């Protein structure tokens, strides 16, 4: 298994960050040919998703999450910025990990699919993402 921890700067705002090119770099670096790539976010307030980016779907996802998980005072978990408790619920909806097949050294994604970090926590501007390639 080959593993690497990458740092992702999300800033102080809700973000969907496309990780696909950084993952491709990792696969080239470890000379991955066939197997599975596991993407893991070791945080209690972020997740990973496969979604189209650049055509508004990433913004739509954040809008849907705001509707589903409003940043208000309803949450029992109350430290941090207003509504921060919702960030701790996010990984139950947007999972903190996924596995993607690797075929001929490339992620086996569909035409418009990207692997993205989803982060609604405005209190944490830097995230880690672990990329682990398991040869097949």
TrEMBL record:
InterPro entries reported for this sequence: UPF0047_YjbQ-like, YjbQ-like_sf
Cross-referenced Pfam families: YjbQ
Record family assignment: Belongs to the UPF0047 family.
NCBIfam families found in the cross-reference section: TIGR00149_YjbQ
Protein name: Secondary thiamine-phosphate synthase enzyme
Organism whose genome encodes this protein: Pseudonocardia halophobica
């Amino acid at each position: 298994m080959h593993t690497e921890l990458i740092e992702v700067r999300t800033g102080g705002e809700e973000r969907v960050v496309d990780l696909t090119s950084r993952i491709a770099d990792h696969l080239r670096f470890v000379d991955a040919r066939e197997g599975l790539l596991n993407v893991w976010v070791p945080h209690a307030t972020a997740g990973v998703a496969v979604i189209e980016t650049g055509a508004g779907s990433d913004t739509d996802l954040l809008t849907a999450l705001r509707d589903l998980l409003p940043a208000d005072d309803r949450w029992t978990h109350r430290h941090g910025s207003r509504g921060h408790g919702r960030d701790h619920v996010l990984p139950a909806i947007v999972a903190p990990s996924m596995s993607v097949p690797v075929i001929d050294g490339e992620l086996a994604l569909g035409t418009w699919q990207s692997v993205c970090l989803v982060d609604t926590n405005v209190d944490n501007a830097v995230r880690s993402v672990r990329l682990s390639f398991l040869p097949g």
